[in-house]
Amino acid sequence: MPMATTLVIPNPFTTILPRSRFSHRRFTCSSVTAQSRSAKDNLLALIADQDRGLRTQNDPAKRASIVEAIDAVAAVGAGSVTTGDSLSATWRLLWTTEKEQLFIIQKAPLFGTRTGDVLQVIDVRNRTLNNVITFPPDGVFFVRSSIEVASPQRVNFRFTSAVLRGRNWEIPLPPFGQGWFDTVYLDDDLRVVKDIRGDYLVVDRASYNWKE
């Protein structure tokens, strides 16, 4: 288990601007908010019955509809900064296409357990990310990563270690891999991600802060 542009603005006191030949659609704060809410609600409705992505794996049409909804949400979030302090949180998985996570969720009962919350725990200031899969009441598998903000929406990450832990035992595992993810949409309670492998992740802000 996952561009910046310099804008030169003419001085209105020294530059005579030509009259525009085109009419531009004006967006008010309320219209943007309504657009965001509509796109977000549509996405949440589509993933509501997908068991975190398990049911989507064998349903290409459903997957295409969800990806289209993700693109619509991403369009709302285009140009926004999503790599600041608001990214720091415990994020709980709602839906994903990541095969490794889905495999663990699906196969956990074979090992006499079940999968609880699947989390991403991000601390931007301390440059850390933990990918966490819980197995109630006491089990947990988590992968530690270091992170670096690369752009207004992109974060680079490098896995540093992994741990499988039970009530009275712990098995350390070697780190594996690195990559990046783009948070294409972020608000007070929802985050939508595309990553280096072309996978998608939809998470909400958990009501608690996970700690090792």
Automatic annotation (TrEMBL):
<keyword id="KW-0934">Plastid</keyword>
<dbReference type="InterPro" id="IPR039633">
    <property type="entry name" value="PAP"/>
</dbReference>
<feature type="domain" description="Plastid lipid-associated protein/fibrillin conserved">
    <location>
        <begin position="39"/>
        <end position="203"/>
    </location>
</feature>
<protein>
    <recommendedName>
        <fullName>Plastid lipid-associated protein/fibrillin conserved domain-containing protein</fullName>
    </recommendedName>
</protein>
<keyword id="KW-0809">Transit peptide</keyword>
<dbReference type="InterPro" id="IPR006843">
    <property type="entry name" value="PAP/fibrillin_dom"/>
</dbReference>
<dbReference type="GO" id="GO:0009536">
    <property type="term" value="C:plastid"/>
</dbReference>
<comment type="similarity">
    <text>Belongs to the PAP/fibrillin family.</text>
</comment>
<dbReference type="Pfam" id="PF04755">
    <property type="entry name" value="PAP_fibrillin"/>
</dbReference>
